[in-house]
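Whiteboard transcription, Tuesday session. T.W. wrote the C-alpha cells on the left side:
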C-alpha cells in the first residue's frame, strides 16, 4: 500500500511540473505596469434610438452590455439620466465583463440616456452612451382604428403592444414613408398576427406601399380559412379576404377577393388598379361593409361593388406581405415590396376619411393649403429653408445662404461652395412628377447640380466620394461656359437613362434676370420649360425611383459628383414639386401667379 501511495504521489508531482511548464493551467502572471489601453465599452441593448413600447406607465428594461480590457477591469458603473443605477466589481472573467440581464425596474415615459463606464486597475475609464425612448402607450389616432404597425425597426402592433410572429427572415427597407423605417419584404418571409378582436361586419385596411414587382405576383394582406381539402396548396376563398397583386402587361394589378360564406366576390379594377414597376410610395386602402367593398389607390376608387358581406368563419390569422400559408394555390407568395403605417379599422371608412389619413400621414395636415393642383412640396426661401407642406427644415450641408432678394417675397436660396440642402423624399416619388422654380444663374463654376433625386452608387470604385448612378431618379443640372449655361435633365428608367437637353435650353449668364424653370415627367414623356416655353422634350419609358431617399437642392452632391456637378452658387426661389405631369398651360399659370 505504501508503494502505491508513493507511486501516485510521484505521478501527481510529474503532472504538476509538466502542466505548469507547458502552460496547461492557462494562468499567466502579468505586470500591472503593462496596462497600456483603457477599457472598451459596448452597449448591446438598448441601442441608439430604441423605443420601448408597453402599455404600462412604469416598466422594466433589461440592459445588456460588455466591457473588455487588455489587463483587468476593476469596476463597471451604469447610469441612467445621470443617476447611478448599478455597480459591478466582482467578475468571473476580469478581462471581459459580459452583463446580459441587468434589470432596471423604474423606467418611465420619455427620452432617456444610458451610460456604461468601465474602469481598469490603473484607473483609466471609458464610457459609452445611448439615447432611447420609453413611449407613452399608443392612443388610436383615427375613429375605429384597432390595429397599427409603424414598422419603425420592429414588428410591434401598438394598440395591443403585441409582436407579430415572423416566418422566414423579413426585414426592414431602411426607408419609411412616415418615420425612419418600414417593412422590407424578402423571399419566403412574412408576418402573421392573430385575428382575435379584429373581425366584424365592417372592416378596413390602409397602408403605404412601395412596389417591388419581382416576383410578378404576391400576397399583401390575407385573412383566410385553412383549406382542409388541399392543406399543402391552400386556396379556400369562401371566407375572409385576400388582397394581392399580379402581373398585368408589365404593370402590377391589385385585386381584392372576399369570401361571403358559400361563395366569393371579386373587386378587380382592371387597368385603374395598376401600378408600374418603380413607382414610389403609394397609399393603398380597402373597405368592407355588409353590402359593399371598395379598393382605393392614393385615395381614389379603383374598384367598387355590392356584395352580401364578409364571412369570417375559421379566419384566425392575418398574413402580412404574403399569401402564405392560406392563399398559395395560385403562387401569391411573399412580397419583396416595402410597407409602412399599416392600420386596420372596425368600420368601413369613407373616401373622405381615407383621403384625410393620406393628408395627415403625408404631413399635409399642418395648416398649409396647396396653391396649385397636384402641389405636394413648397419652399419659398423667405429667410429660412422650411418646406411648408410637412413643416420641416431642410438639412444644410456646409453653409448655404440667402440672396437678399427674391422673385417673390423678400428672399431666395443662395448656394455656396461645398454647400447644399437635402430633404427626405417620403411621399415625393410619385408615378408622375413635376417641378417649378425661379432661377438666377451664375456661370462660375461652369457646371453644377441644381435639383437631384438619385440613388447611391455603391459599386463605384470611388464611393462614397465619387457617385454617378443614373438608372433611377433624376438629375437637373447645368454646364457650359462662364457666359452660357445649358440646363440638362437626365432621368433613370430602371435599366437605362434618358436625356433632355439642347441648344434651346441655354441661359445667358450676363443677362442676370430671373428665369422660370419647370420640368415634367409622365409615364411616357418628359419636358423642360423656360418661362413656360418648351426647350426640350421627348418620349421615354417612365421614371424609376429605386433607391431614391433624398432630394438635393443646389448641388449634385453627394450622389451625382463624378462629372464635377457640385454646388451651385446661383439663386433659387419658389420651389414647388407636384404629383402630376403639369400641362404647359398650368406651368404658364404658375409662372404668372408669381409675377
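and on the right, the sequence the group agreed on:
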Amino acid at each position: 500500500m505504501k508503494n502505491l501511495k508513493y507511486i501516485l504521489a510521484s505521478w501527481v508531482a510529474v503532472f504538476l511540473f509538466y502542466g505548469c511548464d507547458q502552460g496547461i493551467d492557462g494562468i499567466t502572471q502579468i505586470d500591472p505596469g503593462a496596462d497600456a489601453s483603457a477599457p472598451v465599452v459596448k452597449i448591446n441593448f438598448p441601442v441608439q434610438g430604441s423605443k420601448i413600447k408597453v402599455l404600462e406607465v412604469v416598466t422594466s428594461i433589461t440592459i445588456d452590455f460588455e466591457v473588455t480590457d487588455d489587463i483587468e477591469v476593476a469596476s463597471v458603473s451604469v447610469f441612467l439620466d445621470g443617476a447611478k443605477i448599478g455597480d459591478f466589481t466582482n467578475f468571473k472573467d476580469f478581462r471581459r465583463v459580459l452583463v446580459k440581464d441587468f434589470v432596471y425596474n423604474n423606467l418611465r415615459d420619455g427620452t432617456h440616456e444610458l451610460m456604461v463606464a468601465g474602469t481598469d486597475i490603473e484607473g483609466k475609464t471609458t464610457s459609452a452612451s445611448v439615447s432611447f425612448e420609453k413611449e407613452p402607450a399608443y392612443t388610436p389616432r383615427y375613429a375605429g382604428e384597432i390595429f397599427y404597425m409603424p414598422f419603425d425597426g420592429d414588428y410591434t402592433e401598438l394598440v395591443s403592444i403585441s409582436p407579430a410572429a415572423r416566418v422566414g427572415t423579413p426585414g426592414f427597407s431602411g426607408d419609411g414613408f412616415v418615420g425612419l423605417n418600414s417593412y422590407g419584404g424578402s423571399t419566403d418571409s412574412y408576418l402573421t398576427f392573430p385575428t382575435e378582436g379584429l373581425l366584424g361586419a365592417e372592416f378596413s385596411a390602409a397602408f403605404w406601399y412601395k412596389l417591388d414587382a419581382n416576383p410578378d405576383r404576391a400576397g399583401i394582406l390575407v385573412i383566410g380559412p385553412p383549406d382542409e381539402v388541399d392543406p399543402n396548396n391552400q386556396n379556400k376563398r369562401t371566407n375572409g379576404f385576400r388582397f394581392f397583386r399580379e402581373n398585368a402587361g408589365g404593370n402590377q394589378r391589385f385585386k381584392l377577393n372576399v369570401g361571403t360564406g358559400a361563395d366569393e366576390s371579386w373587386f378587380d379594377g382592371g387597368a385603374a388598379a395598376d401600378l408600374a414597376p418603380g413607382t414610389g410610395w403609394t397609399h393603398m386602402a380597402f373597405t368592407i361593409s355588409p353590402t359593399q367593398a371598395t379598393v382605393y389607390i392614393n385615395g381614389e376608387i379603383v374598384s367598387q361593388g355590392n356584395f352580401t358581406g364578409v364571412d369570417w368563419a375559421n379566419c384566425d390569422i392575418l398574413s402580412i406581405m404574403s399569401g402564405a400559408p392560406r392563399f398559395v394555390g395560385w403562387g401569391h407568395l411573399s412580397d419583396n415590396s416595402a410597407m409602412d403605417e399599416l392600420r386596420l379599422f372596425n368600420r368601413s371608412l369613407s373616401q373622405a376619411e381615407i383621403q384625410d389619413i393620406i393628408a395627415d400621414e403625408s404631413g399635409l395636415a399642418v395648416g398649409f393649403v396647396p396653391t396649385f393642383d397636384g402641389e405636394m412640396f413648397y419652399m419659398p426661401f423667405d429667410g429660412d429653408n422650411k418646406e411648408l407642406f410637412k413643416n420641416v427644415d431642410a438639412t444644410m450641408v456646409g453653409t448655404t445662404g440667402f440672396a437678399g432678394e427674391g422673385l417673390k417675397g423678400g428672399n431666395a436660396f443662395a448656394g455656396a461652395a461645398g454647400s447644399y440642402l437635402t430633404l427626405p423624399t417620403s411621399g415625393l416619388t410619385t408615378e408622375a412628377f413635376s417641378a417649378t422654380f425661379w432661377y438666377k444663374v451664375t456661370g462660375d463654376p461652369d457646371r453644377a447640380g441644381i435639383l437631384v433625386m438619385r440613388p447611391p452608387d455603391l459599386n463605384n470604385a470611388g464611393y462614397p466620394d465619387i457617385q454617378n448612378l443614373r438608372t433611377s431618379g433624376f438629375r437637373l443640372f447645368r454646364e457650359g461656359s462662364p457666359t452660357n449655361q445649358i440646363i440638362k435633365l437626365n432621368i433613370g428608367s430602371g435599366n437605362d437613362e434618358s436625356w433632355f437637353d439642347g441648344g434651346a435650353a441655354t441661359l445667358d449668364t450676363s443677362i442676370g434676370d430671373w428665369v422660370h424653370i419647370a420640368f415634367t415627367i409622365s409615364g411616357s414623356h418628359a419636358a423642360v420649360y423656360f418661362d413656360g416655353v418648351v426647350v426640350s422634350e421627348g418620349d421615354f419609358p417612365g421614371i424609376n425611383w429605386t433607391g431614391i431617399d433624398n432630394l438635393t437642392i443646389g448641388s449634385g452632391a453627394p450622389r451625382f459628383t463624378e462629372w464635377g456637378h457640385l454646388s451651385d452658387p446661383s439663386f433659387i426661389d419658389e420651389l414647388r414639386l407636384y404629383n402630376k405631369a403639369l400641362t404647359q398651360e398650368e406651368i404658364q399659370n404658375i409662372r404668372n401667379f408669381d409675377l
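Someone added at the bottom: The radius of gyration is 31 Å.
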